[in-house]
Design brief:
heterodimer, A: about 220 residues, mainly alpha, B: about 240 residues, alpha/beta, Rossmann fold, 6-stranded mixed β-sheet, 4-stranded antiparallel β-sheet, 7 helices, 10 strands
């Protein structure tokens, strides 16, 4: 006899979605850290894309304008890259974001100890619990990263418009911008998933007997 | 004995290692529980009642000795089989109801059926039937927060029955309910145990439970103090109340 316990994907997505909705405000704050970090990433990358494209035209006046705006361009440079300092700041902001997500998710696990224990008493396997938490994080991650990436890209575009004047519109490297936004989006989702991993495993390892405890 | 045994506990001890000291909570328990009976486990707090109860429910493993459910040693089961046992064989009822707060009454009842792989339409129709059986017709779309304590416990009873388990384990099911609501829940459990032949095992110190119990197991200081059948019980409680 095969003793099978199942949780269809549709059902786990439904449970995850409901959990987010039930704790909407807290989810929103968790997502907000992601929005900020991802929009910073997208902003930096898209700004570089735009500047890079201006430099690539080889127009000396554009080059002058870039230097005036604080880009370090050495004679003969044909492309710009993020400076080490900038990369550091980006990495740091992403790290802070992951720590923030871990913190928020750990709180959410603690809050739901009884719920998780009850599910295990009803026959849920460890991996169902992990899956529900991961689905939640994926949804939050997708929403947060999407908003962040779009906000970041748009603000980079507006900043370029202000600094370099309306002519920049003709020079926008759409493909590179799209790629940078996509990278920011994927990074954001990965960060969200990375942040939920430890809390989800902790939740899954919980003993069902915890559900029996009377004190909250 | 010709009756079929559903739970057999042999020589179970349980120690809790608290670092410096080891607390011996259960000191050798032997029990046999027959199918279809309504059993109450009584005892003062700290007697090991809850620990024993958790062992029977497969929620905790004994230090020594064996627990058999349907003649299967639960210590031998792996995680999948234990989950299957919890899902299909045992229905749990908690003192604190433990409904999933984000789900409606119906979703709470159908969750164990989903785990058991029941198609969603069948689960919904069975869930509705169970809800009306526990007297909650028309409340299926309500969230636990919108139901009273007694109603929540009724949902929990319906959920415990979801996969037609052989055993219902109720841990102080009336502990958080007022007197009359508690009596209603007890009557409901008794009725279900009679109609469906489900074994009900409840840990309690609620004396209202005694009247409906077929058997009362008294636990004292980690040992079985005495096991009383219903007949001897009535004389005993009568003596106490006078």
């Amino acid at each position: 006899m095969r003793r099978l316990i199942v949780l269809p994907w549709k059902k786990s997505i439904e449970i995850a979605y409901k959990s987010i909705r039930a704790r909407f405000f807290r989810s929103l704050i968790t997502t907000l850290t992601l929005v900020l970090a991802v929009s910073f990433l997208a902003f930096s990358q898209v700004s570089i894309d735009i500047a890079d494209n201006m430099l690539a035209t080889g127009d000396p006046s554009l080059c002058q304008m870039l230097m005036r705006c604080g880009y370090d361009i050495l004679p003969g440079d044909t492309s710009l890259a993020a400076s080490p300092k900038q990369r550091w700041i980006i990495t740091l902001s992403l790290l802070v974001c992951v720590v923030g997500i871990i913190n928020a998710q750990l709180m959410s696990v603690t809050e739901r100890f009884r719920e998780i224990g009850t599910m295990k008493c009803l026959g849920a396997l460890d991996r169902f619990i992990v899956r529900i938490f991961v689905m939640e994080a994926a949804m939050q991650g997708f929403a947060g990263a999407l908003v962040g990436a779009v906000v970041g890209a748009i603000s980079a575009f507006l900043a370029a418009l202000l600094r370099f004047g309306p002519d920049t519109i003709n020079l926008l490297p759409w493909q590179a911008i799209f790629l940078s936004t996509l990278i920011a989006l994927v990074t954001g989702i990965s960060l969200s998933l990375l942040g939920v991993l430890y809390p989800a495993i902790m939740a899954a390892r919980m003993q069902p007997v915890e559900a029996m405890r009377v004190e909250q | 004995m010709s009756e079929k045994l559903i739970v057999r506990v042999t020589g179970v001890t349980k120690d809790f290692d608290l670092g410096k000291i080891v607390v011996k909570v259960l000191k050798g328990i032997d029990l046999e529980i027959e199918t279809g009976k309504y059993i109450s486990i009584m005892g003062p707090s700290g007697s090991g009642k809850s620990t024993l109860f958790n062992m029977i429910g497969g929620l905790d493993k004994p230090t020594k000795g064996k627990v058999f459910i349907d003649e299967v040693d639960i210590a031998q089961l792996d995680a999948y089989e234990l989950a299957w046992l919890r899902c299909r064989k045992i229905g749990y009822i908690f003192q604190t109801f433990n409904l999933i707060p984000v789900m409606t009454a119906l979703e709470n009842v159908t969750l164990p059926m989903t785990f058991a792989g029941m198609p969603s339409e069948t689960a919904v129709s069975r869930g509705m039937k169970l809800l009306s059986q526990v007297g909650l017709e028309g409340r299926h779309a309500h969230k636990p927060a919108e139901l009273s304590g007694g109603q929540q416990q009724r949902v929990a009873v319906a959920r415990a029955l979801a996969n037609s388990p052989s055993i219902i384990l109720a841990d102080e099911p009336t502990g958080n309910l007022d007197l009359s609501t508690g009596e209603e829940i007890i009557a409901l459990l008794k009725q279900l145990s009679q109609e469906q032949g489900t074994t009900v095992i409840s840990a309690t110190h609620d004396f209202k439970m005694l009247n409906v119990s077929d058997q009362v197991i008294w636990i004292r200081d980690g040992r079985v103090d005495k096991i009383q059948e219903r007949t001897e019980l009535e004389i005993h409680t009568g003596g106490m109340s006078s």
